[in-house]
Design goal:
Strand order of the largest sheet: 1-2
Number of domains: 2
Organism: Thiopseudomonas alkaliphila
Protein name: IS66 family insertion sequence element accessory protein TnpB
Strand content: 5-15%
Structural class: mainly alpha
Distance between the termini: 40 Å
Length: about 100
């Protein structure tokens, strides 16, 4: 079995485990799989889901006119429903510090 086949096999096992309702130990015993190998692949796939796929730039869209921006400040909408509003020249340093923490 080559690397891609092995990866596909373990990915399928992890998906089946997720929908089985069994503990990892029960699932591997039932499927006659090596528990430690299963945990290695499960951890690998979980980590891959949380890492960004590729570094790059995000598309930015203007949602207000320049006149509106001057009175309201900027607004940034982040994944997960996080919004940062009221960004202006006077608090730009605070925004940069917050973004570094994310």
């Amino acid at each position: 079995m080559d690397h891609h086949e092995r990866q596909a096999f373990w990915q399928q096992q992890v998906k089946q485990h997720h929908s089985s309702g069994l503990s990892a130990r029960q699932f591997t015993e039932q499927k006659d799989l090596n528990y430690h190998q299963f945990m290695y692949w499960r951890k690998k796939f979980t980590r891959a889901q949380h890492e960004p796929s590729q570094p790059g730039f995000a598309k930015v869209e203007q949602s207000a006119t320049i006149g509106q921006l001057s009175s309201q400040g900027l607004c940034i909408n982040l994944p997960g429903g996080i919004s940062i509003t009221g960004i202006g020249h006077d608090n730009l340093g605070v925004l940069l510090s917050m973004l570094r923490q994310l």
